[in-house]
Amino acid sequence: MTEIILQNIHKSYGDAQVIHGINLNLKSGEFIVFVGPSGCGKSTLLRIIAGLEQVSEGDILIDGARVNHIPASQRGLAMVFQSYALYPHMTVYKNMAFGLENSDMLREEIERRVHHAADLLQITQLLQRKPKALSGGQRQRVAIGRAIVREPKAFLLDEPLSNLDAELRVTMRRELASLHDSVASTMIYVTHDQVEAMTLADTIVVLHAGRISQVGTPLALYNTPQNTFVAGFIGSPRMNLLQGRLVREAEKVSIHLASSVFSIQGIDQSVNTQEVTVGIRPEHIDILSDKAKNADLTITVDLIEQLGGETYLYGQSEDGQSLTVHQPGQLTIQAGDRLDLGFRRDHLHLFDGDGAVICNGTRRVS
Ligand code: ADP
Ligand code: MG
After folding, report:
1. pLDDT of residue 152
2. In this structure, which ligand is nearest to the CA of 42?
């Protein structure tokens, strides 16, 4: 059982501050994913936990003990990088055993651990090979095996699948999930890929420019984003974020979007007339029939992508805002067509001028 706590972590390189005060409690046994765009500070934060970087300010606690000045080798954590960094002249067995042989561990125990890890990763038949005789996926498994044999308190993985091709990444993703189930250790996994984050994590930490944007389960982030950054980052294709105006007249609240006006309920009394961002995911938009009235938005279709089982439409509103629509099945729609769209109210998100959420889900007024 390993709990890792970060308290008020700041990190600067010279004058450049890259981590701006991060507080996090990472629960024992969880699969935690740090996700965010390139340069947001994911690797820096992971390296701070590992002990490969010193903080400028703040504390790192592992199982209640402050470890700021404990060297990486004594923190009991194992790190796996994007580049496998295997020793080319050593066999797979030796690559995995090497770290343990430098301790005073008994040979039988080392053998037991290497065979156990090889078994978990299904690379037993490769133990006598050298790295050059392995595929990319097999090499990454050896790198993970080298971490497993240490029986660490927690695994720290920095974009471990980034060098693999798309198909292999999906396979390895499933294997990592089942590995987490079998070793039952805390895993902290860094990726810029929100699909990896959604599929692997118990808890996702979304980082943006050195700050935590939101922490939550994958579905909590999808259903209730707290700001436009998370709304746009989690989910694929990304949420449509449209500029509109919220107008309150007495008890009635309406949204003005392009040439449409629609009323909604469920908005806090304190929210007054203002610029708003209306968030609606491509999968939460309905195409209304010709006879339907009161479209939430009318678009002209620019492009249609028919994938057979599903269809993506890309279009523009009358005021030139781009919009993506996702529909199941096949559609007989062409570029140039005008479509009346309805937004599902329980999936309509509103954000204020600073990008902070006003509400996730509203009620229809009709
Ligand atoms: P990520 O892993 O999210 O892509 P990093 O943690 O690697 O981001 O980097 C965060 C920021 O810190 C970036 O702007 C990067 O340029 C900067 N940075 C990282 N390492 C160093 C370093 N050793 N010296 C100076 N700047 C650094
Ligand atoms: Mg990185």
Report:
1. 93
2. 1
